[in-house]
Amino acid sequence: MEKIKFSFTNLKTLLVFLLCLVFMFAGITFIFTGKLKASVNNSGSCLSCHSNAGKLMGLVKPKEAAEAGCAAPPAKRPLFLDFFVRAEFADSLHGRVGCKQCHGGNPEAEDKDQAHKDMKDPEENCVSCHQDIVRRQATSIHATLAGQDYLLKQRTGKENFDKLVRAREADCKKCHCGCGDCHISIPKAVGGGLLSGHKFFKTPPMVDTCAVCHGTRAGGEYTGKISEDMEPDVHKQAGLHCIDCHKEDMHGDGIKYASRWEVSRLPKCINCHEGVPNFKSPAHNITEHKSVSCKSCHAQAYKNCFQCHASFDKAGNYHRKQKEKAVIFKIGKNTAPGYIYKYSPVRHKPIIRDTFGYFGKDIFAHFDQYPTWSTAAPHSIKRITSRNKSCNNCHCNKKYFLLKEDLTENDSKADDEVILEEVPRCK
Amino acid sequence: MLKIRTYITFCVMLLVSIFIAGIAIAGPQLTKTQENCLHAWDGAVENLKADKWGMLSVDEVKSMIDAGVPFTLLDVRMAKDREKDGAIAGSIHIPITDLSDKIAQLPDDLNAPIVIHCKSGWTGVMAMTMLRQLGYVNTKNMKDGFSAWQKAGYPIVKTP
User: Fold this and answer.
1) Domain count, chain B
2) What is the CATH number of the domain that holds B145?
3) What is the ipTM of this complex?
4) pTM, rounded to two decimals
5) Out of A203, A357, A380, B120, which residue is the most buried by the measure of CB atoms under 10 Å away?
């Protein structure tokens, strides 16, 4: 048998051939791995735009700021951040799901319009992994906004409630809160936009989410922003987040409540402050004080709104304006069902008889059956306030009590049940 | 009747006057380079105006950092100011006086976002305008400079 002779020429050819094979294999692997990663992520070219800050800056055009109404817009930030996705998001737990799985669209398209065709509501996918929370949240007051409808329907009656469809769609329903409005984006009520590069926040950043929708009252009081001479709530100063008190009622418990006062497990001071009231303090031992809520002494003033009117202009834009706002403090008789205290701070509702006069005559047909002053939950807690510095700071100081003389012709006749007959006498 | 000589003198003086007036109205003659420069400047001003004069507040810059936006934060203060007052973490330092020599330290991509800051905002405007003229279309200036960052209470790092 003839032996095969390995000459230098043959070896050189063999080496060249092997090198070619290696490069070809490496190239195929590289391309295949890239495509595999892209197909696993289903992100395709989405991030080529959404993670490219320079590109977004050029693409995103300024927009008109939405009328915030009772919401408080978050701090100013560059508009392109609404759409910016951190590059590292693709490797995160939610990022590995892939853009298309939640958002739809065409990740492979190079053109923006084609890429955004057939988009879908990403929140339809939350239930895939978070069944229990999604189920409970669907009936929570954050989702249903039942409290707003409840309060309106009391005063309109069934006969007039449907006349407010346009107003509710343009105004009340703006604050409808889905998963993303807390955990991923700035609430849609003030324009939306990704909070921080599409990061998912298990505990939403309070100032950019909670204090946006609940901005002009609870959020503003809590942060001390409603007035220059007010301090932030003592719980805010201690570093507490909204959910540290409201942990039980954020996602709901699966029960559809009509109003926030009906929600089970509402925050109570004694949940954390065991042993209060402190009976070593003389003020807590006075019999009459036992029917007075904690906030009557330990809350700063809070925002009250008066004479709100809602309408559409000729261009079809919705407007809601209060004629007057005041940061004041008034103690009255409790109106919240099931509340254990007889006396508590009361807040003026922004409504007036013809708040919705644009939509018809006597929309609030039952206006006088329900008070315009009602039990408040000021988020402006402070241990020592202007009222409790001394007995007579509060007693015989009529500015802190809701009296007959505080009512106007714009208030409801039902407020007679809320006012105090007299100011507590001086000590 | 005027003599011919007087008539000619009068015409020549009239023509010279018209010529001088024409120059006065038309202004100095620009070179091609000057014309190109002015044209580019007009374009730069229009772009800046459409982009809110390229200004970002300290809150906006902070929100970009918090959101993980990849951008170049360029500190154009003089070295002594940076040493004395500290710096924003992650910023690169090219004093305004050295900027033209050290352009290579900036990203190759002319679309890359660059945010400039100086001490009070004024020098930053010059640096921003210069970089935009060079083609860095996404260059911004941090309004009121490092002083505003300090006033806002945002984190500062000591520089070596």
Assistant:
1) 1
2) 3.40.250.10
3) 0.72
4) 0.77
5) A380
